[in-house]
Amino acid sequence: MDTILILDFGGQTSQLISRRIRELGYYTEIIPGETEIPSKLKSNLKGIILSGSPYSVYQEDAPKLSFDLASIGIPVLGICYGMQRIVKDFGGTVKAGGKKEYGRSKVFFTGREKDRGLLHNIPDGFISWMSHGDIIENIPRNFDVLALSENHHVAAISHREKRIIGIQFHPEVTHCQYGTEILDNFAGIVCGARKNWNVELFIENTCRELRKRVGEMKVLLLISGGVDSSVLATLLLHCLNPKNVYLLYIDTGLMRKDETEEVLGNLERLGAVNINVRDASDRFFEALEGVEDPEEKRRIIGDLFMKLEQEETAKLGLKNYFLAQGTLYTDMIESGKGVGNRAQVIKSHHNVRSPLVEELREKGKLIEPLSILYKDEVRKLGRKLGLHERIIERHPFPGPGLAVRILGEVTREKAGILKDADSIYIEELKKRGLYGKIWQAFAVLLPVRSVGVRGDSRGYRYVLALRAVVSKDGMTADVFQFPTKDLLEISAMITNKVPEIGRVVYDVSSKPPATIEWE
Length: 519
What we know:
This protein is of the alpha/beta class. The protein is built from 16 helices and 18 strands. Strand 16 (457-470) and strand 17 form a beta hairpin.
């Protein structure tokens, strides 16, 4: 297939660039930014995109290209750090900016006719999305400035003879106006690539690879009942012999209210043959006793999941088997597992950074078919495989469960309080027709108590934070514009029905700068 290659320099949106372009129908692959281009890709390679990076190009250890840009011979698009890499490699200069640019910024054209099609049908003065502290001081010889930001910094450049273009903004982020059109222009007009990528092809390729790799060996999947693990279970049952697919549900005591019963019903409807359930809530609460650090919580939960998996597989008589996980792109990115290994850790996902998981990955015993997909792509995959819409539209739920929504030490008492409050919140969203308008909604139990009055008595009770965001893929998110009447009524309902909670607040932070989850 015609391929657009993304060189990953550790930027948090490297995978998102790939996802955006795939959504347009073009096939993409990602490799570390400092490695040689594999020979297998060269024959169908139509264009290269240089990603962003947490580094500055003038730093001594900044990632560099393994090839000469001037002689590559195919179109190149540099995004943010990628543009600065182009500037430096062609003899220009980059410096730390006096005024950093983050968020929305208007872009004004200075030489659109020299963009070789990148800005085709893009209006002047469109709103871009910036995220950088460095700026272009001097552009290289044989380059033209195509656009400036509203702060008069260089926003786009183009080589006069070669199809090498750089842009300072991020077209892959949904907040960038015409970002999708710009990426489509690059892949389709500048590179001349064909649209030959879709979900059907993903299923076909994945099934072929799974059957070749797994054969008649057993596969174990730790299933939570959420979107990711349910879609993966359906995919495994579709691609492999159902008798060889073992689904293990571990009740941690940190799931939503009444979730265990709901999960078991869903698993039976999937047509699974081997379903195994383990109540390990006592083990998890004991292991988390006295632990407040969120990264330590994730590590403990991840390791305990793996230990329980080993115990259960021994009971089932499984010896030589594969472990399947519903790991997504976002899990890998936020855990600092970008393809180029230059990514910084935002939060460690227990299914990515647990030592036991990494050991299985190194041994080649880990199967993660969804790790090249984003949440919206996983939902499309689930629909294609015939998964019930009720499961597909469930809001994301963290692997560690309520442990990372209880700030501070996790106890069974706090888990019970949060389950009751969260259940009221989610059920009310569904009754009021708001659930489907929100990407993710949940409640967070804060480690503080606030004075309140109930009847004629005063008391100190817990503070609960409500969170609701809208997003497309979880990489960026805006606060849900909650109807005031609904927010007030839900808040009152929680404080009336959950006596341990005396105050409710609403989180109005977007991502970035905040993450969606609190921990």
